[in-house]
């Protein structure tokens, strides 16, 4: 369904999975991904930088929202 269809897509997916700690935060709130760090990680892993940048731009909002939702659950759980 939402699986990457190309080698570049798979590479970008692997970088995003490995980049879980590359976040920009203000206090306990995640405000975005550290694109510089994620792109550097991608370069080290051999990912296509153009594809990775496109995926990051599309996925950042969803990733940040999901992380913040989980953090709120931890605070209230």
Task: Give the structure's gist in a few sentences.
This protein is mainly alpha-helical. It is 66% helix and 12% strand. It has one domain (8-76).
Architecture blueprint of SSEs:
Elements: H1 7-18, E1 23-26, E2 29-33, H2 35-45, H3 49-76
Antiparallel strand pairs: 1-2
Helix pairs in contact: 1-2, 1-3, 2-3
Taking all Cα atoms into account, the compactness measure Rg is 13 Å
User: Could you give the order of the helices and strands?
Assistant: HEEHH
User: Alpha-carbon distance between the termini?
Assistant: 32 Å
Largest sheet: 2 strands, antiparallel
Q: Find the structural class using helix and strand composition.
A: mainly alpha
- Strand sequence of the main sheet, in spatial order? 1-2
Q: What is the total number of structural domains?
A: 1
How many beta-strand elements?
Answer: 2
Average per-residue pLDDT, rounded, comes to 90
Q: Which spans of ≥5 residues are poorly predicted at pLDDT below 50?
A: none
Report on the architecture of this protein.
- This protein has 77 residues and is mostly helical.
- The chain has one domain (8-76).
- The protein is built from three helices and two strands; from the N terminus they run αββαα.
- It has helices at 7-18, 35-45, 49-76, and strands at residues 23-26, 29-33.
- Strands 1-2 form a two-stranded antiparallel ribbon.
- α1 crosses α2 (35-45) and α2 packs across α3 (49-76).
- It is elongated, with a radius of gyration of 13 Å.
